[in-house]
Hints:
Strand order of the largest sheet: 1-2-6-3-7-17
Number of helices: 7
Low-confidence stretches: none
CATH architecture of the largest domain: 3-Layer(aba) Sandwich
CATH topology of the largest domain: Aminopeptidase
Shape: elongated
Oligomer: single chain
Order of helices and strands: HHEEEEEHEHEEEHEEEEHEEEEEH
Strand content: 25-35%
Mean pLDDT: 97
Helix content: 25-40%
CATH superfamily of the largest domain: Zn peptidases
Radius of gyration: 22 Å
Number of domains: 2
Structural class: alpha+beta
CATH class of the largest domain: Alpha Beta
Amino acid sequence: MPDVVALAAELLATQSPSRAEGPAVEMVAAWLRERGWRVTLQEVTPGRHNVWATRRGGGVTLSTHLDTVPPYVAPRLTADRLWGRGACDAKGIAAAMMVAATRLAGAGEERVDLLFVVGEERGSDGARAANELEATSRYLINGEPTESRLATGCKGAWRVTVRTHGREAHSAYPELGATAIIPMCELLPELETLVLPVDAALGPTTVNVGLIQGGTAANIIPGQCEAELLVRLVGDRAPVQQALERWAAGRAELSFGSFIPAQHFTVVPGFDTAPMAYTSDIPLLPRWGTPLLFGPGSIHVAHTPDEFIALDELRDSVDAYERLVRTLLDS
C-alpha cells in the first residue's frame, strides 16, 4: 500500500494555488489511474479541472480540494510533523483519502469514489461545477482540518462590500473636497456593537474586515473607499442583513455578494465531535449525498507560514476514513 506521508509530501511539493491547480490535478489523476481508478477530469475553466475517480460507485464519496492559498511554502519533514502549504488544508487530507480509498478497493470494497475539486479557496467554482456531475453516492465525506473530529456543523459565509464616497480635490485645499476614507474609519469600529444572531451549537455570528482600499494618491483628497467584510453565519441571513443595513444607513453603500449557508451534519458513533467555525464546499455539493465533515490537522495553522500536520494523526486518518466509509456502507 502507498505511504501516506510520502504521498502528502509529493502533493505539497506540487504547487497549486487557486486558479493554477493544473500540476496537482495532473499528479493526482495519474496516481489514481496507475492504481486502477476510472478517472474523469471535469473542466471548470480553461486549464482547470476537477478530478472524479470511481470504480463501482453507489456508496460513499471522499472529497476535498487541491488548491491552496498563496504563497507557496515548500514541504519540510521533521521527526513528527510534515510542514508546508497544504499540509492540513487540504493536501494531507487528499493523500489520506487516496490511500484509504485504494486500500478499500484492494480489499474488494468498490463502492467508494474520490472527488477532488479546485477553487475552494477563491469562491468554490470547482464545487459548483462538480455538483453538475452524475454523482451516485449516498454519502459525502468532505475533508477539512477538524482535528480528527466529526463536525456537528459549520458556519456559513457571506461576502459584503461597504463603500463610502467623497469628492476629490487637491490635497492643499481640503475644503474643496470631501474625504471618503475618514468616514469609513469611523464606521468600521461600530461593527463590534452590532447585535447579531447566536446559535446554540455553532456559536455567534462574526464579522471580519478583511480588506480596505481607497483613494488614488497621497496628494488627492480621496473620493472613494471600499471595505470587504466576511460574515460567518450561524443561521438565517435576514437578521444579519437588517443589522448591517441599519448600521450603514445614510453613511455607506452595501453590496451583498457570494453566500454559503450554515450547515448541520450527520455524525456516527465512535468519533469525537465538535462544531466548526469555518465554511466548507459541502453546501455546494448536494447531489453527492448526505454530508459529513472530517479531517486531520488544525484549522488554526491553516493559511499560515507554519502550517503542518502531525505524522501520527495523518497516518491514523487513513484508518479513520476507512472506518467511516465502512460504517456508512453498513448503515
